[in-house]
Structure formats: C-alpha cells, structure tokens
TrEMBL record:
Species: Rotaria socialis
UniProt GO MF annotations: phosphatidate phosphatase activity
This protein's name: Phosphatidate phosphatase APP1 catalytic domain-containing protein
Domain Phosphatidate phosphatase APP1 catalytic: from-to ranges: 159-272
InterPro entries, per the entry: APP1_cat, Mg2+_PAP
Length: 276
C-alpha cells in the first residue's frame, strides 16, 4: 500500500508539472538595441532591430528541467527553462506600428530578427522618450502578438559606455560548467559589488548611455532585465547571441569563441557608425 501511495504521489507530482507547461504560448522577445545617425544623411537614423518570435514547447521544457536538476542538484527557475526549449517561428512578418508607411521585416529560420531600419528624424520623434531612448510597438501580423521595443540613441555628441556583463557586473563564473548552469537557471542573478554605484555615477556625470555585452543567449534577456532593475544598473542596449539546439551543447555555447566574434562585431558596429 505504501508503495502504491508513493507511486500515486509521484504521478500526481509529474501530472501537475506537465499541466503547468501544458499550454503552448507564443511570444515576441525584443532585446533593447541602438540607433545611430545615418552617416550619409543627418536627417535619418539607422535603427538596429534584434529579437525572437517563439512558441513554447511544454514537453521539452519538462524533460530539460528535470534533467538539469539531476545535474546541478538544485531546483531550477521554470520560466528560464521554458525560454530555452521554445521553438522559433520562422519566416513570419514583424512590423513597427504607428508610422505612415509600412516598416516590416521577417524572422529567419530560427525565428530571430536581426536587421536595420532607416527612420527619419520626424518618425523618431514620434517614439522618443525623455532622455536618449525610444519606445515603439511591434506587431506580428496574423499572430495576435504585440510587444514594446526599446532603442537607445547613440548621437554624434554623446558618450556610450560599452560593458561586458559576465563576471564584470554579474557573477557568472563562466569557467565552471556546473556553476554556469546553477547561475543561469536557478536563484537570483548576483551583482559584482560596487559596480552599480560606479555605473550610475558615470551616467550622472557624463549623461551617458550604456551598451552591455554578454556570452549569455538572448533567451535570458527578460531575467537580465529584472537583474538590472533590481540592482539599479543603468538601462541600456544588450548585445547577445541566440542559442539553438543545433549548437553543440549549452556549456560549449557559453565557452565557444563565437562569443568573441559577436563581441568584436558589436564593437565594429559602434565604431563604424560613429563620426570621428
């Protein structure tokens, strides 16, 4: 009887877990990016767009969560796991709302968005917020999905601090496989002491914007944003790679030299779009 009860309780626990993942939710994740003055026309801006259109995969999420818990021996954040097992919605239209013309792009085979738009000064003013950031609404037509995008303006006479995240402002311990998994999927992200105060001082002193580089995949951005807000780091653009299951494995993704390539490309983007 005791064995039957144990099996029943185990079944109920698994059933409740699966039920929590049951509904396949679609989402559109936009990672804050940047816009530069068009070097060929000061009346225009070049807006860099980055994001991901996805659908959650409930069954894969269950298996990944339970498998990783066996490895790290800790309870994991289910919402983070869901983002890594979601599937990209390929070749779908994504459009900026609120303009007098159609401004659209399409997701790639992984559901990712990575392109540029040319926006006039007048159009930019429609979305401009106090300070040097822009908020705009993006829609996935026929998907019934809308979300807000955020762009930080890198003007010719401004200052942008470009900062790494991993083990610079956030404790990641990317040299340890187990610690990387623990710090990625469980508990609150931990800040490097004193760095938030330093960055806020730079923001006040230089009226600066910030751009953050990280080896973390963009699936983690919503949780990084929670970290920025909680620790009171200045908001800014985030420049991240995208993880797919075609990558060798999760740890290899963090350790791969592809991160150096992405960082170099981001630095080149800033240099090429800045008047000197």
């Amino acid at each position: 009887m005791r064995d039957i009860l144990r099996v029943l309780l185990s079944f109920l626990a698994i059933a409740n877990t699966i039920n929590g993942f049951f509904f396949k939710r679609k989402g559109l994740l936009l990672v804050p990016s940047v816009a530069f003055r068009d070097l060929s026309s000061t009346s225009n801006w070049i807006l860099y767009n980055q994001g991901w259109l996805y659908e959650e995969n409930p069954i894969q999420a269950v298996f990944m969560e339970k498998t990783l818990e066996l490895i790290v021996r800790k309870d994991l954040d289910r919402n983070r796991v869901k983002m890594f097992t979601a599937e990209g919605e390929k070749r779908k239209d994504i459009c900026i709302d609120g303009l007098n013309r159609e401004v659209c792009t399409r997701t790639d085979d992984d559901g990712c968005i990575a392109n540029t738009f040319t926006i006039t000064n007048q159009e930019m003013e429609l979305f401009r917020q106090p300070g040097d950031n822009v908020l705009f609404q993006v829609t996935a037509p026929y998907q019934n999905i809308q979300t807000i995008g955020e762009i930080y303006l890198c003007d010719d006479d401004g200052i942008t601090f470009i900062s790494d995240i991993d083990d610079t402002i956030k404790i990641t311990q990317v040299t340890s496989s187990i610690e990387t998994l623990v710090n990625t999927f469980s508990g609150q992200f931990k800040a490097v002491p004193g760095m938030a105060d330093t960055y806020r001082h730079w923001q006040r002193t230089y009226n600066a914007t910030f751009a953050y580089l990280t080896a973390s995949p963009d699936q983690l951005y919503p949780f990084l944003r929670e970290f920025f807000d909680r620790e009171q780091f200045p908001s800014g653009s985030a420049h991240m790679r995208h993880f797919t299951w075609l990558d060798a494995n999760f740890i290899a993704f963090f350790m791969s030299s592809n991160y150096i390539k992405k960082k170099t490309e981001t630095l080149q983007m800033f240099l090429q779009n800045t008047r000197r």
